Amino acid sequence: MNKKVLLIGVLLIVPLVGLLAVSFRFDPKIVESPLIGKPAPDFTLQDLDGNVVRLSELRGTPVVINFWSTWCPPCIQEHPLLESAAAHYRGRVHFLGVIYQDDPGVIARFIDELGAWGPALIDPENRVAIAYGVFGPPETFFIDEEGVIVDKVIGGLHAQILREALDALL
């Protein structure tokens, strides 16, 4: 075997393996966002029943905003987890679901069948999703009682990540 080829291979492989090993220490579901530490963009949206929800009116209580769709498999998988968390933290945390590029009629049927964990808010033209920098569902934002975004999770939620984020809010 050519020693030069072996040396080049080792010089390429060792740093890549090291980088991979370091990256395993980080949870890919918790993503730093430029919005973390900043006031949450305010919005006023209607739910499926026409009730108006204004984010700034919820100040004084932590808020979880989850951008979701019925066509999103991780959204469907995390639905029971969000239902359970909303019931457990009822009165201490507001849970808001912002519909992401989905038909409100389909959402209504989904909720009739599987239940709701918070108001399903219609986001015309995705303006709120754009303000929050959402790439695609599910994305979840955790907002403290003062209206500041403290965490963001991209992808489906897991019980431990959700519990830790909610406990940190309280």
Provide a brief overview of the structure:
This protein has 170 residues and is α/β, with parallel strands linked by helices.
Structure description:
The protein is an alpha/beta fold and 170 residues long. It is 38% helix and 19% strand. The chain has 5 helices and 7 strands. Strands 2-1-5-4-3-6-7 form a 7-stranded mixed sheet, covered by helices on one side. The longest helix is centred in the first third of the chain and has 21 residues, at 3-23. The chain is elongated.
Key features?
170 residues, single chain, 5 helices, alpha/beta, elongated, seven-stranded mixed β-sheet
* Euclidean distance between termini CA atoms: 62 Å
What is the residue-mean pLDDT, rounded to a whole number?
A: 88
Spell out the helices and strands N to C.
Answer: HEEEHEHEHEEH
Spatial strand order of the main sheet: 2-1-5-4-3-6-7
State Rg.
20 Å
